[in-house]
């Protein structure tokens, strides 16, 4: 059964986790600032609902992957006394996942936003 106090406590824990990552992880802060910049542009430009949805999805994907990357790094750091090449590989692969998502998000942003700024082909 749904319990508002229990749900509120869960949201508070999630918020604390988000704040911790924002404080401790420079990459997350950079991605968050980029997402905020795109959100500001979204509010100013005359974008379609579908364009807005793609941008929100791209921003969300990158931020979620940054959070998952932070989780993997923390779990891997617990294994430090028994470090294995796989630990380094896991960290590198997670960073690569964030990089790929970031590049994809940047391409989506460029394809959607630049034509609205009068730069490049309009595609309309």
Describe the overall structure.
This protein has helices at residues 4-24, 26-44, 49-78, 85-116. The protein contains four helices and no strands. Helix 3 runs antiparallel to helix 4 (85-116). The protein has a single domain (4-116), classed as Helix Hairpins (Orthogonal Bundle). It has 124 residues and is mainly alpha-helical.
Q: Report the portion of residues in β strands.
A: under 5%
What overall form do the CA principal axes indicate?
flat
CATH topology-level fold name:
Helix Hairpins
Uncertain runs: none
**What is the H/E order?**
HHHH
CATH architecture: Orthogonal Bundle
Distance between the terminal alpha carbons, to the nearest Å?
49 Å
Number of domains: 1
Quick one: how many beta strands? Answer: 0
If you compute it from the alpha carbons, what radius of gyration comes out, rounded to the nearest whole angstrom? 18 Å
Structural class: mainly alpha
Number of contiguous helices: 4
CATH class descriptor name: Mainly Alpha
Largest sheet: none
Mean of pLDDT: 91
What topology does this entry show?
Elements: H1 4-24, H2 26-44, H3 49-78, H4 85-116
Helix pairs in contact: 1-2, 2-3, 3-4
